[in-house]
UniProtKB/TrEMBL annotation:
NCBIfam families: amido_AtzE, PRK09201.1. It comes from Komagataeibacter melaceti. It comes from the Bacteria. The keyword Hydrolase applies. Residues 139-161 are annotated as: Disordered. This is AtzE family amidohydrolase. The keyword Ribonucleoprotein does not apply. PANTHER family: GLUTAMYL-TRNA(GLN) AMIDOTRANSFERASE, TRANSAMIDASE. Pfam families: Amidase. Residues 29-430 form the Amidase domain. One of its GO terms (molecular function) is hydrolase activity.
Length: 459
């Protein structure tokens, strides 16, 4: 068996090495494949390795460099995609048996094509909750993705494979989707950076849908610099400059967002706000109803999307997914309409809060990743399902369509994370605050602990 190698460098650092000829794209790609084959047996983050196609593209990058042509800013950098992004020549399964007999994708999803054009190499498809309906990446068909910080714990979801493969140092960046928190929750639990961009900003062509009125796609990475660079390529709008962080008004969300969180997370949040020099606390109204509305909209739209197939092939679905989709398909139209009416009202309340502060800070999850054999969390003194409830702080924000940057906190032990929330199109402000927190040592990709392949940590 091949010995595990040291982790891949960050995406931009790796591209610089390849562009300078100090490493070949082929050696990087083949090394990453060998590493995944050895180490992912512990984490189950990868569903398919795109070996031949990845090596062929890496060879093209090396030929371009040898010929003096520009191979792109992410030259030869391997990355993975949640298995609901189309990759040319591959079947997009969305984590389900139901789609496995579909024809291969004729072309890449738009964001994958943009990254490929920048020189990045799609290397793997990644595990997820079936059809992105869950917060834990417990997949009946592909198995559960394990947290690299402790393989006895969940990685979060539904983009769990995307977060875990970055946290383990097997891929420098990955793509995920976020409907109710599916980038932010696993980013927090695995200790990596993640971004849910403004709703509607990223093209969704070639991405299997879940809830059209909420779905967003975005990157996950081990450094905020890489996250920003990949985001700019995906959006086809690089952020060339960031605002001065001292000019960004920051406030903390209280009320709902201050309840149920661990003492360690409370202390880390306090340190963040103290460093930023802001002590303002804003309490949003009716957050519980906002979360309920996000639940109802997700159930209704997801159920409607899958209803024709459920009528024919219901037993091929994960039982938990099947039950939730069928319940959503039976929701009365009036309930769905009322949820959207409330959504408009709640969005106005959040915009009013953003008139008082440019960036709102909130926890991402209540605490550390739950154990796989005890997949639950405590909310208001009650034990509830992790798969359904890890997003209690992310779902209400999803309802607004706002951009959110998930920042991993610099804590000892298992990872914890926060959300940096901004007005539509204000990603530059979020990156300015994130870079300040990283520079101050308050936020960083969480190193793997001793005993859990610490030598392979990307941090």
């Amino acid at each position: 068996m091949t010995e595990p190698r040291s982790p891949l460098a960050g995406a931009l650092a790796l591209a610089a090495e390849i562009r300078a000829g100090r490493r070949s794209a082929v050696s990087v790609v083949t090394g990453a494949i060998a590493d995944i084959e050895v180490r992912d047996t512990r984490f189950n983050s990868v569903t398919r390795i795109l070996g031949a196609a990845a090596v062929a593209q890496a060879e093209e990058v090396d030929r371009a460099i040898a010929a003096g042509r520009d191979p792109g800013p992410l030259a030869g950098v391997p990355f993975g995609v949640k298995d609901l992004f189309d990759v040319q020549g591959e079947v997009t399964t969305a984590g389900s048996l139901v789609l496995r007999d579909n024809p291969p994708a004729a072309r890449d999803a738009t964001v994958v094509a943009r990254l490929r054009a920048a020189g990045a190499v799609p290397l793997a498809t990644l595990n997820m909750d079936e059809f992105a309906y869950g917060f834990s990446t417990e997949n009946t068909h592909n198995g559960t993705t394990r947290n690299p910080h402790d393989p006895e714990r969940l990685a979060g979801g539904s983009s769990g494979g995307s977060a875990a493969s970055v946290a383990a140092g097997m891929l420098p960046f990955t793509l995920g989707s976020d409907t109710n928190g599916s980038i932010r929750v696993p980013s927090s639990l695995c200790g990596v950076w993640g971004l849910k961009p403004t709703y509607g900003q990223m093209p969704l062509q070639g991405v299997y849908p879940f809830v059209a009125s909420l779905d967003v796609v975005g990157p996950m990475a081990s450094t905020v610099e890489d996250l920003q660079a990949v985001y700019g390529i995906m959006a086809d709008a690089p952020l060339v400059s960031l605002p001065v962080v001292e000019d960004v008004r920051v406030a903390r969300l209280g009320g709902w967002f201050a309840s149920n969180i661990s003492t360690e997370l409370t202390a880390a949040l306090d340190a963040v706000m103290t460093h930023l020099g802001h002590d303002r606390v804003i309490e949003l109204p009716e957050v519980a109803r906002a979360r309920a509305s996000a639940f109802l909209i997700s159930a209704a739209e997801g159920g409607n999307l899958h209803l024709p197939r459920l009528r024919r092939r219901a037993m091929q679905y994960d039982p938990a997914t099947r039950g939730r989709l069928m319940a959503g398909a039976m929701l009365p139209a009036a309930t769905f309409v009322q949820a959207h009416r409330f959504r408009r009202w709640f969005r106005a309340q959040v915009h009013a809060a953003l008139a008082q502060a440019d960036v709102l800070v909130a926890p991402t999850t209540v605490g550390i990743a739950p154990r796989i054999d005890q997949p639950s969390i405590i909310v208001d003194g009650k034990t509830v399902s992790a798969r359904a409830n890890l997003g209690i702080f992310t779902q209400p924000i999803s309802l607004t369509g706002l951009p959110v940057l998930a920042a991993p906190l610099a804590v000892e032990g298992m990872p914890l994370g926060i959300q940096l929330i901004g007005a539509p199109g204000s990603e530059a402000r979020l990156f300015a605050v994130a870079r300040e927190l990283e520079s101050a040592g308050l936020a960083r990709c969480t190193p793997l602990a001793a005993g859990f392949a610490a030598k392979d940590s990307p941090c």
